[in-house]
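Lecture 7 notes: from sequence to structure.
We start with the chain below.
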Amino acid sequence: MKATSGGEAHAARAELQAWYTRGLLPKLAQAAKSGTVDRGAVEALDDEVRSLLDLSHPREEAA
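Predicted structure tokens for the same chain:
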């Protein structure tokens, strides 16, 4: 496995954070809103992913 510099690691984490908050999370919120998945399951997953990606800002409710 190739080692990455601090800057590359920071950029990769920022890319993952953006993908999650702008891409996946809105889709999960919509799935919960429509009843496709349980809202509690989405919230539990969100808490776990935020912890992994070091997203410390609070969750925004789906519109």
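Points to note: The chain is about 70% helix and 0% strand. The mean pLDDT is 86.
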